[in-house]
Amino acid sequence: MRKRLVKTFAALCTAVLCGSVAVGAPAQAGQQKGKLSQRELREEVERTLARAGLVGMSVEVRDGGKRIRARAGEAVLGTGMPVPYGASFRADSVTKPFVATVVLQLAAEGRLSLDDTVEKWLPGVVQGNGNDGRRITLRHLLQHTSGIHNYDYTDDVGYTAEAFEKHRYDHLSPEQIVAGAMRSAPDFPPADPDDPAPRWNYTNPGYILAGMVIQKVTGRTWAQEVHDRIVEPLGLTHTYAPGDDPVLPAPHARNYHRFPGSTAWTDTTERNMSWAGAAGELISGKRDVDKFFTALLTGRLLPPAQLAQMRHAVPVGPDFDAVFPGLHYGLGLMRQPLTCGGYRWGHGGDGDGDFVRTGFTADGRRSVVITASGKTSQEDQLLRVEALFQKLTDTALCEGTR
């Protein structure tokens, strides 16, 4: 039960701009506190690292055309080597908005509809144990309202340091991940499209299915479509799907995870990410992530109608709202109130040993991208880390830079 609770919490953190700090009612939009200096950001990052018990972290903040950045901790444990600027990192679930954007582009082109069922495109794939692809739409998949169980490969091989070492190079196909999910009954029935507060639960297999649909519609993999439709047009130089290549390209910080039952850090940097697929396989960099979300939010990647559908966010429900107040999920895009008014948008990602957090103002003018290493499986650390990340993100977006 404890493993399931930790994994459920971590799964939501994978999706969101996480934070356990209560966010009060938004003030008047545009209200600002002050301006964040390079020195103040560095001090805040150093405090965050110390309080969160992380190995290393790096933050980049943009206000219009002005950028400041800071780092703390180590890139390689025990060496004192600083976390490199311009580093590559595993984007994890920041992959999801890339995939959702491709699906919405295909909808804009009339090649599919968000109201198409999974069964239409992938007949016979979602069935058994109460799962029914005839009732699940592409919109359900992108919004995590399908009810499909959030199967994880560790459900079968175990979630320990030993299991990780044994299986870190395993290849898993999308079909294997979906079949794993089908062994469980749905968490709930697919949401009514007119329900303003549907049942919601984060599910990676839903995005694996979305990637499979992209391939069925286009005849090309989701990764090829992401590259040709997003990566190449925007000039993203660090963003790609590695497939079975387990290596993170230099420069990069190493990732460290403390698995349940272990007191030592496991270096999790090198691993096969095929299991994550369209739910979390991408590798990227901070400038790429900033370019992507800024282009997305300012209408460069989607027509107005599709961007509006992507921004149409539903509450994540009372179970999660108690920890993440005000959090809403659109189609691969998160929304959460800022203390200075308005909202922050974006998506985050988590892997074994690493964190990625993003935040963008609605107009794309301000942004913050956080990467960090040194994760444990303890709830208290996860809560502490997310509270600190949320505070840092809120400060960056509300204060801007000077």
What are the key terms here?
402 residues; Beta-lactamase; 14 helices; 16 strands
How is the secondary structure organized here?
Blueprint: H1 2-15, H2 38-52, E1 56-63, E2 66-73, E3 88-90, H3 95-108, H4 118-121, E4 127-128, E5 131-132, H5 138-143, H6 154-157, H7 161-167, H8 174-182, H9 204-218, H10 222-234, E6 256-258, E7 266-267, E8 283-285, H11 286-297, H12 304-311, E9 314-315, H13 318-321, E10 328-329, E11 334-337, E12 343-346, E13 349-351, E14 354-361, E15 366-373, E16 375-376, H14 379-399
Parallel strand pairs: 6-16
Antiparallel strand pairs: 1-2, 1-15, 3-8, 4-5, 6-7, 9-10, 10-11, 11-12, 12-14, 13-14, 14-15
Helix pairs in contact: 2-14, 3-9, 3-12, 8-9
Could you please describe the fold and organization of this structure?
α3 crosses α9 (204-218). The chain contains 14 helices and 16 strands. It has one domain: Beta-lactamase, CATH 3.40.710. It is an alpha+beta fold and 402 residues long. Strands 1, 2, 9, 10, 11, 12, 13, 14 and 15 form a nine-stranded antiparallel beta sheet that branches. A three-stranded mixed beta sheet has the order 7-6-16. The chain starts with a helix and ends with a helix.
